[in-house]
Amino acid sequence: MDNAASVALSVLGASVTRPTVVLAEDHPPVAEQIREVLGGDFDVLAVVGHGEALVKAVRRLRPDAVVTDISMPGMDGMQAARELLTELPGLPVVFITVHDDPTLARAALTIGKGYVLKASAGEDLADAVRCVLDNRYFVSAALGRIEALVGTLH
């Protein structure tokens, strides 16, 4: 969280730094809901609707983490994350998706460290971002034990 994009707030005279996030989601109503979920704990610097815009926003804004839908028109979230990680190794990435497919989750977790089902985003997303910021994996509980998904990645 020592990223230059972190936003400092003054709370009762003390300085508090909130992690920053760029969000990619191609459905505006869903993007707004996710933004609200994240806004309680993080500063959402930008909301974009496709992978190309995600890459541009992250290059410009240098957030602490990225939250991206997997399925988007044009460049999808996984492609965008791969491209970003070549330039910014270690960038924390959380994928959000409707797909409760363990095979897709495994593939996503070779790129990022978080995999959250949209159905559980309200409960899981803030925790997922905190985990990836701490260099830990997070997978929605509906997909089963995290060890079963990430244990084979290393």
From TrEMBL:
CDD domains: REC_NarL-like (cd17535)
Domain Response regulatory: 20-133
Pfam families found in the cross-reference section: Response_reg
Domain of life: Bacteria
Keywords: DNA-binding, Phosphoprotein, Transcription, Transcription regulation
GO terms (BP aspect): phosphorelay signal transduction system
InterPro entries: CheY-like_superfamily, NreC/VraR/RcsB-like_REC, Sig_transdc_resp-reg_receiver, WalR-like
SMART domains associated with the record: REC (SM00448)
Modified residues (4-aspartylphosphate): 69
Annotated GO MF terms: DNA binding
Name by which UniProt lists this protein: Response regulatory domain-containing protein
Upper lineage: Bacteria, Pseudomonadati, Pseudomonadota, Gammaproteobacteria, Lysobacterales
